[in-house]
């Protein structure tokens, strides 16, 4: 198992190298030649890169292609924001530790579950703890590492559409989100704001003070950084669980759910409200998936 974790860590680092190399190639092509490079053109570069960097052969080929797809999506999002007059945010290079997942796009070749193990091509079979049984056909698998070193397998599946029960046809609700109450329903119900960050703020501040005092490059600093990361992870987990529970309850009760249209990113720029806005889980609740 330890050797497989090492292989996953190495896979992440090679994916990070591929991401940066692809980004640099597309950036240089545009700046030097005014040429826009497609995802498929960058896919064609991989065999040559493997000749120059043989260790890339240790990563599943379609996983590397998915890395280049991520670069392509980052550019598409950049141009979409630019055209919409938003702050575009040019795609960034990924430093060490800033690439945390890799994907197997075709489950029949990678991501199969066998006797409580998940099969990862070029890595091996790894014991997995299923939080719930997988329903439907697995379409892709993404393996993700958290900042605190935990590993998760995220399966995307295809299932048959389940028709709504007849009583849901007329079950409609409108929802306004806010800071006093997390959500207010059109039927008068409210959900209190849990304020996850505020609950952990003092512990986080204490951990960050210890981190700032620890000399760089020392074991003490590494240990202090892990404590800060654990607090952030705990806050994120609480926020995600809350949003998931609320969304599940809404889907169970209503056939049509309408949300207030909010520019959450723009609201965060208000420094008086930024901390409170970032503390709530509006985006997690509203976004699909």
Automatic annotation (TrEMBL):
It comes from the Archaea. InterPro entries: Transposase, Transposase_put_HTH. Residues 156-269 form the Probable transposase IS891/IS1136/IS1341 domain. Pfam families: HTH_OrfB_IS605, OrfB_IS605. Residues 3-35 form the Transposase putative helix-turn-helix domain. NCBIfam families: guided_TnpB. This is Conserved domain transposase IS605 family.
